[in-house]
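PT: before anyone asks, these are the final sequences, not the draft ones from last week. 384 residues across everything. Please model them as a single complex and drop the result in this thread when it's through.
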Amino acid sequence: MIAPVPAPATRGDPVDPGDPAEGVVQPGAWPLVAADEPEPWPRADRPEPSFAHASEAEMARILDFYRVRWEYEPHTFPILWNLDGAVVESFAPDFWLPDLGLYLEMTTLRQKLVRKKNRKLRRVLELYPDLRVKLFYARDFRALMLKFGRLALVEELSGASGHLGPDRGPEAADALSSVAAASDMTAGDDTPGDIA
Amino acid sequence: MTDRIDLEADIGEVLVTEDQIRTKVAELGARIGADYADRRLTLVSVLKGSLPFMADLMRTIPVPVRIDLMEVSSYGGSSTESSGLVRILKDLSASIEGEDVLIVEDIIDTGLTLNYLLRYLRGKNPKSLRICTLLDKPARRLVDIAVDYVGFTIPDQFVVGYGLDYREYYRNLRFVGVLRPEVYTSGD
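LR: through. Structure below.
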């Protein structure tokens, strides 16, 4: 038997975009759009967050293109505490896709840093088993670029060359990632070893 | 990419043979026919990749069907400009309100296009809306979508043929094959 079409999924409550007069706009704060009415898409109304890596900016553009709502690093999950109860390590996935109930973590750097991120992800899922997190590896990003005919951009959008910001160039990333790789006691997911 | 296209030499491995496709399409058609027995069905093909699959599948479904075609823009597909939004390049030619509708896809990987299409088609108020794909590549999935009819679940490789393209070519292959990496890496 063929099941009837379920009612279009609701988008939930609209996100308060803050007071424009004060220039306070939450990242990913989209006006409510009915699920069955894709138009219009208010991308131009929202400032782009400061992405740590070019691959993240590209992923944001892809999600925008396909009208998938996202928020950039909105939540941080503590994964390690010291004896005093202070958080000494945490995990902040790059994207939260509220309509899909999915976190997306981009990791396009070197293998040793991927291992570190895999370890973090395992720990997160032990502590927060209900979370849905997809780790997007370099090979996944490359495949995505190939699918969209943008393979030529992979090198500049991934790895160390994709770092964004004045103090996050390849040299800084190399130096800091060595530090991060040498110690698991990082302050959170904003350490350079985790920014791509 | 090299300028020269060699339909045989550019394929590293045949993933699904012509015979396997023919057998699977017949199986899918029979299943769909049983599920929609005594009903009418509208098949919606998503251009361009699903065209061969649609043409073969529709002839194996033993219930009254009508067909329609849609085309959806792809990210980065029209130019090097990466901004913009997905849009319908070709819309349905007839209403599907109150109809049983089956989306016919060539391949589902990220699910991004299909997610958009499902939202769009649900807004047209069909009686039912289901999905049939020849190929499913779950390793690439970003959007979890329940797929009702799957021909083949394939590994995470770049495939062409039987409608699937690389830069618009290779669609006319009668099988599904893995494109040699040097085809899309050389000269890029």
